[in-house]
Specification:
heterodimer, A: mainly alpha, B: mainly alpha, 11 helices, 75% helix, 0% strand
């Protein structure tokens, strides 16, 4: 059984790789003028559908949904980066080491929720005013706080997806794309969750971002703090469940690989 | 002429065979039905079933551009890594026509992408899209595919000349989808932005695709096809010239291995 101190140390060590990887993938210029612009364009792309259908109220719904989905698009990149060790030849070392795999992988891709916190905050605070949503100054720290927790919670969900991608690493980008678009479709971002059949609504309730988005909508609607906190609480509960499953899943993948039955070569 | 045609047909055939085994093909394709689900749900929720065809056209064009961009980015570097680049350059075929041929092969992805989008709309939402102007539709598919292949040929040349540009390769998709109006017609944009969008062949292709699916008569078909052909030809000329000049210099200076 790993102690919290050991877990924190593993995450801290793995996060060194996360920081180095981010520096390799992006400079501040390519992050700002490439990646951020791409994500903002994605948000505006969906938001303009509201303008196309000619419904201002629905446009507000889409704008907020599309802004929060920025964090899903980015944290899902952890699915790919989890597989990078397989291509860099370090997988054997990892498998042979006594590390708790799920904890290691939690730290290994932390660059994405960190970057997503910045991109999603910018998307949520800077773009909606162009679509008629005016934020009050006191709402800003609340929104940023929700964004931080939503990014981390979505990252917990991504960890389980990443554990599957680790086995099917050739399909990592396909798995990531399918997961991202499914979340965008059913989490209430583009259409209310109630639009979908009941079984799909249940799945939507299991997604952390569904509740993070609900919290953002509650802030926008000026709902009482208890409503916002209730949504945040549900999100954290869902995140804890996803992370627990991810830890078990990573342990299984490594256990099979260590006995020679896995496919982590 | 034989060098050009030989390179083109070789590239086309090679790409079609390679794509069947490539995970990138399926990555570009998988987006079509899923994006259709997202966009169609928005049309149905807002009660705008009259715009349902938009939710089929956009994912098709997005798959087309995604595939083109992906293969254009990887093509030359993969040739180099697999040891094909030097023999290719020593062979009598024209490299620009080979690259263009390969990227034309990649454009065949539009057929399964459109089929997946249309079947998804029908099976998931019960909305079956009718192609009201089949001839215009076929011409729109051909013109858009060729112009896409030409444009990404130019981009592949840019990626070779300036390898740093490949960092933003993944970031080029969404701005193009937005600016070209693959979902929301550029006619709804402010005038200054519409002017910029009209420089992109894809804005003409998206409009023509949508019009071919609508019952109303399609206006100025020839002019729109010619505009796309002209924009595609300009991109192809730029890409070919850039490739030829760069490779000539690389051969003269012995820097081919650094490509």
């Amino acid at each position: 059984m790993i102690t919290p101190v050991q877990a924190a140390r593993t995450v801290r060590h793995a996060a060194v790789i996360a920081r180095a990887d981010l520096g390799v993938v992006y400079s501040w210029r390519t992050w700002l003028f490439g990646w951020l612009i791409r994500l903002l364009c994605q948000m505006v792309f969906y938001s303009l559908v509201g303008v196309l259908v000619g419904d201002p109220e629905y446009t507000v719904h889409i704008v907020l949904g599309a802004a929060v989905m920025t964090c899903v698009a980015e944290t899902m990149l952890a699915t790919a980066s989890t597989c990078w060790d397989r291509h860099q030849g370090t997988m054997g070392l990892l498998t042979a080491s006594p590390v708790e795999p799920g904890v290691f992988y939690f730290g290994r891709s932390l660059q994405w929720p960190a970057s997503a916190t910045a991109t999603t905050s910018i998307a949520l605070l800077a773009v909606p005013p162009f679509f008629g949503i005016a934020w009050e100054w006191h709402q800003v720290p609340v929104l940023v706080g929700i964004v931080v927790l939503t990014c981390l919670s979505t990252y917990c969900m991504t960890m389980l997806v990443a554990s599957f991608a680790l086995v099917l690493s050739e399909a990592r980008n396909i798995i990531s794309a399918i997961s991202t678009t499914c979340v965008i479709a059913i989490s209430g971002a583009m259409v209310p969750v109630e639009f979908w059949p009941v079984p799909v609504q249940w799945i939507a309730q299991a997604l952390p971002v569904t509740h993070g988005l609900a919290a953002v909508r509650a802030v926008e609607a000026g709902a009482p703090a208890s409503a916002v906190l209730a949504s945040v609480g549900l999100m954290l509960l869902a995140a804890a469940c996803w992370l627990s499953l991810a830890l078990v899943s990573f342990r299984q993948v490594f256990a099979r690989a260590r006995t020679g039955n896995g496919a982590l070569d | 002429m034989r060098r050009l045609l030989g390179g083109f047909t070789l590239g086309l055939g090679f790409q079609l065979r390679a794509m069947v085994r490539s995970a990138d093909t399926y990555f570009a394709l998988v987006g079509a039905p899923l994006t259709t689900v997202v966009l169609m749900s928005m049309m149905l929720y807002s009660g705008r079933t009259d715009l349902a065809s938009y939710a089929v056209v956009a994912p098709t064009l997005m798959s087309l551009w995604t595939a083109g961009l992906m293969f254009a980015g990887e093509m030359i570097s993969e040739d180099r890594e697999n040891g094909r680049l030097e023999p290719l350059l020593a062979s009598p075929v024209s490299l620009p026509s080979l690259v263009f041929g390969r990227l034309c092969g990649a454009m065949f992805i539009s057929l399964p992408a459109f089929a997946l989008a249309i079947v998804t709309a029908g099976l998931v939402f019960g909305v079956w899209i009718t192609i009201h102007h089949p001839v215009v539709f076929v011409l729109a598919v051909l013109a858009t595919s060729l112009a896409t292949a030409a444009t990404v040929t130019a981009l592949s040349a840019v990626f070779i000349v300036a390898p740093g540009a490949r960092i933003v390769q993944n970031s080029l998709s969404m701005p193009v989808f937005l600016l070209a109006g693959v979902m929301v017609p550029v006619a709804l944009f402010p005038v200054w932005l519409e002017g910029a969008s009209r420089v992109l062949y894809l804005s003409w292709g998206a409009d023509l695709f949508r019009d071919a699916l609508e019952p109303a008569p399609v206006e100025a078909v020839a002019l729109r096809l010619l505009t796309m052909a002209a924009l595609g030809a300009a991109a192809l000329a730029f890409g070919s010239l850039t490739l030829v000049r760069f490779l000539r210099r690389a051969r003269a200076e012995g820097t081919l291995s650094r490509v």
